[in-house]
Every structure is written in structure tokens, then in C-alpha cells.
Fold each of these.
Amino acid sequence: MTDMKKQAVLFTKLDLPLAQAADRIIEVALPTYDSQVSDGLNIGGGTYTRFANGETEIILVCNDEMHPDVFLPSHKEFPYYCYVYRGSPAVLDAMRSCFITRGIQCEFGERP
């Protein structure tokens, strides 16, 4: 039996459309990152936002039934989550601290 490594994700409650949620994340937690909206055919379908800074890339996806390849129903009350596509997952800890400081509800979880 193979042990599948799970990936840490940071769920967030932002009651905003994707582009505005991405802008809010940059403002609050990732001010030195560039962002780009992309089509997610290569990472699960739907539109997503990619944040990049040097060797680190973070992906913001919609967590809903309209995006079944990335939907995590165990946290369906969170409309978005971020995960590290490239780089150290420690950036999620820093993001969480920034979110909490600004009153944005968030929590850690995992995805396969």
C-alpha cells in the first residue's frame, strides 16, 4: 500500500469574486507578489489565480462544486483555498497570521 502525501492548504472565507479575493490577499498577505489569473486546465479546471515571488508560487482556487477537480467538500463553507505550487509551504503560516490579524476567517486543511 502506497502512502499518498497530502498537501497543506489554507482555506479562507472571503465573500468576494475571485479577482477581488486575489486583490485582497495581495493587500493583506502577499504585497511583494505578482498575480496572474489563469485557466486551470493543467491544475484542475476553472479559473485560478497564481501568485509568484521569486521561487515561490501560490495558487488560489475556488472551493465549490462548479470546480469539481479542486473542490474539497469537507470545507465547503470556505469559498477559496490557497496552496503552494512551488516553494516552501511555510508561506501559508505567514499568510494565516496576516489573515487573522485582519479579521479574515481561515483554517488549515489538506488535500490529496
Note: The helical segments are 18-28, 90-101.
Amino acid sequence: MKSDLKNGELIIKRVSNGWVVYSGSGYEADHTRITVYEEGEGERGEHEALVQLIQENFIHLMQSKKRGGIKMEVRKKGWDIEYEEEGY
């Protein structure tokens, strides 16, 4: 697929069953790589698809053992419920 996207450029699109990422190809000039992040089954499927998208496309910004950065997680309960259970 021909594209005006350069290597490192992204377009993230929300679709009915997940996310689609269009990115410039680092291997072929003027071509676009298309990656689909489909929502899984269950209550947190939408969240997990988004987390996977962000982790794969922004890996250089994520926290590692020796470098600060973004840390992401999907939790079962909202923060208000967690605080109530801990007695705050």
C-alpha cells in the first residue's frame, strides 16, 4: 500500500472491534504497515488491546529495569473500590 507516512509516523484509528495502526515502513519507502489490535473476549478486552498497541508502538517510552518511563496495567476494579477495600 502506497503512503505518505514516513518511518516512525503513526496513525491510530478506533474501529468497532479494536484498533488499527497505520505506520510508515522502515524497510520499504512509500509503503505502509497496517497492524490490527483486536479486542479479546471478556470484560477487559478493550483495555488489553489498547495496552498492547501502546506497548508495541511506544516501547522506547516504557519503563525498564534501569530506565524510567511509562508503566501500564489493567486492573479488575476501579480505584474507588480498591480504596474502600483498603480502608481509606
Note: The mean pLDDT is 85.
